[in-house]
Specification:
- By secondary structure, this protein is an alpha/beta fold.
- The chain has 3 domains: 124 residues, 4-hydroxy-3-methylbut-2-enyl diphosphate reductase, catalytic domain (Cobalt-precorrin-4 Transmethylase, domain 1, 3-Layer(aba) Sandwich); 84 residues, Rossmann fold, CATH 3.40.50; 85 residues, 3-Layer(aba) Sandwich (Cobalt-precorrin-4 Transmethylase, domain 1).
- It is 39% helix and 19% strand.
- It has 12 helices and 12 strands.
- The strands form 3 sheets. The chain has a 5-stranded parallel β-sheet with strand order 10-9-11-1-12, sandwiched between helices.
- It starts with a helix and ends with a helix.
- The N terminus is likely disordered.
């Protein structure tokens, strides 16, 4: 706990360490909604509750839900015929997934983040209007697979880097649109978008930027903290896009050493030996208990004083998927 860690100041000849917590950090509204969807389904229907893909990219969260009766699968083929709920993860799914669920008469609950769903709807609108779509994102990420999977194969061109953007040749420069994955680096994406707009002035972008508020705010907090600390820890999973971007943002902002760790046990103490200041943030899928665990681990080795640096206040809330809301209202 931060308060407990701060109380170690002045104890036992330990090296002093100022810990600067980034705010906001950790869970966003979409992640809270997704986790609560699984918890609510387990409460209403009992185990098992099947979940396609990790509900969010965090092993601690996934293991906790497994212990309560959630069964995680990569594809619906792994699920037997069942009346149990089948939940789609926060990252979104290709259109073929709910279609398969319907064919098998599954009780499907879509926990896709509403901000990802917004990108899906934008893709559909552009397609209906005859536009070729450029999606800025990372190949293999489930959100990208879900967005590209909303439309027929070939309707969306994936661009990962500025070099790929510069090499992209559209079928018709006058009928072109771009979308972005919600968890990208703001700076990288801005560079790619600027290049596309320069080369294709008629390109149509989102009415509101696709990179979500939580990604934006967490990156802004890191930009403020990273230049004033000697090292930075990002709490998050290696397969979490927004967590990886936070590490990159810290490095670009001037932090000499930035590390992405899942738990306190993952800390390479040899790289943190002589520091006197440390920044800590957490990806949007990482629970606060893991931040507290890491602060406690440093408090065992240092005389820790904790302070917080804030970049934004967040009050965003997303209601549960409709089937779970209806049951909640009926109780």
């Amino acid at each position: 706990m931060p308060d407990d860690a701060a109380k170690t100041e002045g104890s036992g000849g330990k090296r002093p360490l100022k810990v600067v917590l980034c705010s906001p950090r950790g869970f966003c509204a979409g992640v809270v909604r997704a986790i609560d969807s699984v918890e609510r389904a387990l409460s209403l229907y009992g185990p098992p509750v099947y979940v396609r893909h990790e509900i969010v990219h965090n092993r601690y969260v996934v293991d906790g839900l497994k212990a309560k009766g959630a069964v995680f699968v990569e594809e619906l083929d792994e699920i037997p015929d069942t009346d149990a709920p089948v939940i789609f993860s926060a990252h979104g799914v290709p259109r073929s997934v709910p279609e398969q669920a319907e064919r098998r008469n599954f009780f499907a609950i879509d926990a896709t983040c509403p901000l990802v769903t917004k990108v899906h709807r934008e893709a559909e609108i552009h397609f209906r209007r005859g536009r070729e779509i450029v999606l800025i994102g990372h190949a293999g990420h489930p959100e990208v697979a879900g967005t590209m999977g909303q439309l027929p194969e070939g309707a969306v061109a994936l661009v990962e880097t500025l070099a790929q953007a510069r090499a992209f040749v559209p079928k018709d420069e006058g009928k072109l649109a771009y979308l972005t994955q919600t968890t990208l680096s703001l700076d990288d994406t801005a560079e790619i978008v600027e290049d596309l707009k320069r080369r294709f002035p008629a390109i149509v972008g989102p009415h509101k930027e696709d990179i979500c508020y939580a990604t934006t705010n967490r990156q802004e907090a890191v930009k403020r903290v990273a230049p004033v600390v000697e090292a930075m820890i990002v709490v998050g999973a290696p397969n979490s896009s927004n967590s990886q971007r936070l590490k990159e943002v810290a490095e670009r902002a001037g932090c000499a050493h930035a590390a992405l760790v899942q738990r306190a046990a993952d800390i390479d103490w040899g790289k943190f030996g002589a520091i006197s200041s440390l920044g800590i943030t957490a990806g949007a899928s990482a629970p606060e208990i893991l931040v507290e665990e890491i602060i406690d681990a440093f408090a065992e080795r240092y005389t820790v004083k904790v302070e917080t640096m804030s970049a934004a206040e967040e009050g965003v809330f997303f209601p549960l998927p409709r089937p779970l809301r209806q049951n909640e209202a009926a109780e």
